[in-house]
Amino acid sequence: MADDDFEPAELPDYMQVRERPLGVTILGILHLLGGLLMLAPLAMFVPNSGEAQKRLQEIGLPLWLLVAGFCLLAFVGVLSGLGLFLGRKWGWWLAAFYYVYSIGRHANALVFTFQLSGMDAGGGRGVDFYRAKFAVRILIAVLLLAYLFRGKVLHYFGLESRGNLKRLGTLIGVCVLIACLLNGALILTSRQ
Q1: Angstrom distance (rounded) from CA 151 to CA 155
Q2: Domain definitions of the chain by residue range
Q3: How far apart are CA 14 and CA 49, in angstroms?
Q4: Confidence (pTM)
């Protein structure tokens, strides 16, 4: 056997270096920054927690639930940003969860604006402004989620293109479960 007949064995998939798509890099930066910046409102609540708690009680929202929501989203943002950079499957799942959760959150806010018809939404802006704002946010989240489901992006994270409906169903199911748990916590705390 001659030296020129040698063919190296193909490396297993987990050992192959995959080039990170530019969009994943940009999303990773945005997730990291967004997660860290989401902690800033918490700093505002601490010194003014009495005033904040009073205002939140007026609308039936306990302060601890708002703080927990901010912490959850900040945690998901930072971790998904890291996972996007590292090309880890859990990074993809957290980023995809964030967008599905955002779609649900903004859809909920959009539906709420229809209950405000005829009311001034504050700041001189009409309800139509907020309807457009939430509709645009939903569109952006849908487009970013669709990007995460592209073949090149899935390949970078070591995910197969098959099974996308199952992945999407899992993400929606988790978001619905979280919404139910948060609503249950809100109902239980409002009875006290």
Answers
A1: 6
A2: 20-190
A3: 48
A4: 0.80
